[in-house]
Design a protein that fits this description.
This protein is of the alpha/beta class and 223 residues long. It has ten helices and five strands. It has a five-stranded parallel sheet with strand order 2-1-3-4-5, with helices on both faces. Strand 4, helix 4 and strand 5 form a beta-alpha-beta unit. Helix 6 packs across helix 10. It is globular, with a radius of gyration of 18 Å. Pfam families: GerE (PF00196), Response_reg (PF00072). This is Response regulator. Keywords: DNA-binding, Phosphoprotein.
Length: 223
């Protein structure tokens, strides 16, 4: 589904995605319409502009993203750090600026559908840096006595997710199948009561897993 308040841009993006083999199930030109149509059509991926009449894109993301909702790829003219962080905190899986080429957009939609976190170059570091800042706050996740226990393999996969590796890269690194990686991620999401990969990355960074070496990070070892 494609959401943008500029008809020509919206139609062009929808056309490019359709020509690339995607089924574009709906489009919308304002925030309330986007929420209604997303709930009605249940797309796998929502390509979302932030500057929308009626309801801001970040609010749309909050309304529709989640465990049963679409993965949200923001496609915005703004590359401002505040906009990027607001979108990610609202549940967006990725963020591209509109200067991206058609091939980059198509690749981003494919990767978003697989559950990868996709960002315009330079923005991924910003998001990870913000999560590290939040992790340094007064109530970090690490050390909570009731924290769920993960298996050694789940912790290993989680650590690689936090480092920004795609599922394919993790599978190659650990010599396991792409499906097995997905299963470990889904099991971990369930145990941690999280909804998407972005939340999983934040949890891993708060737990310090993104700073560990390849042979470390087993549960119950205190890192």
């Amino acid at each position: 589904m494609v959401v943008d308040d500029h008809p020509m841009w919206r139609d062009a993006v929808a056309r490019d995605l359709a020509e690339a083999g995607f089924a574009v199930v709906a489009t919308a030109g304002d925030g309330p319409q986007a929420v209604r149509r997303a709930r009605a059509t249940r797309p796998d991926v929502l390509v979302l502009d932030l500057n929308l009449p009626g309801l801001p894109g970040a609010r749309v993301c909050q309304e529709v993203a989640g465990e049963d909702g679409p993965r949200v790829l923001v496609l915005s003219a703004s590359g401002e750090h505040a906009d990027v962080l607001e979108a990610v905190k609202a549940g967006a899986t990725g963020y591209l600026v509109k200067s991206a080429g058609t091939e980059e957009l198509i690749d981003a939609v494919h990767r978003t559908a697989r559950g990868d976190a996709v960002f315009t170059p330079g923005l991924a570091g910003l998001v990870l840096g913000e999560y590290r800042r939040l992790a340094a706050g007064p109530e970090p996740t690490r050390g909570k006595p009731d924290a769920p226990r993960l298996t050694a393999r789940e912790t290993e996969v989680l650590r690689l997710v936090a480092k920004g590796l795609s599922y394919k890269q993790i599978a190659e690194r650990l010599v396991i199948s792409h499906r097995t990686v997905q299963n470990h991620v889904q099991n971990t999401l369930g145990k941690l009561q999280l909804h998407n990969r972005v939340e999983l990355v934040r949890y891993a960074i708060e737990a310090g897993l993104d700073d560990e070496g390849d042979g470390e990070g087993r549960p119950g070892t205190g890192r």
